[in-house]
Amino acid sequence: MGPPAEPDLYRDTWVRYLGYANEVGESFRAIVPVSLVWASYGVATAYVTADAVDKGKKAAVACEDEAGKTPQVAVAVLDTFVWQALASVAIPGFTINRICAASLYLLGTMTRWPLPIRKWTTTAIGLSAIPFIIKPIDRTVDFLLDSSLRQLYSSDETRPSSS
């Protein structure tokens, strides 16, 4: 048994939560300016990009074969970026957006609560939904990529770990 693995900055530390910035932004959409929601997407996209670059650098260091280094780095960057873009930004952002939109609509039709109360309730519902959507979305993106993009990779050795 070797030394313990070094923690992955983008997967094993608080930095991982930057990937959820857009879900928080979507949860607050009803009560903050839209520019702040878009800024939250900027934070999440910066996280995704930084993780992809990090995985590319790690693949470059790990690859002993100079001739195979470029393809392995490209696969690591592409796989990480696509996986993170789908699992951390696009799908959860859309999901929280729709949950919040539906809850605001339903609260408007089913209650007589004042609009500010409905908006804050919608925000609370969106924030509360985040922990419940993460794992199912991650597993779905794993399945989606395993069934499509990852089929194009030449061998199991070049496939990076997604989660």
From TrEMBL:
Top-level taxonomic group: Eukaryota
Example GO biological process: mitochondrial fission
GO cellular component: mitochondrion
InterPro entries noted in UniProt: Mitochondrial_18_kDa_protein (IPR019560)
Family per similarity comment: Belongs to the MTFP1 family.
Protein name, entry field: Mitochondrial fission process protein 1
The organism's taxonomic lineage, starting at the top: Eukaryota, Metazoa, Chordata, Craniata, Vertebrata
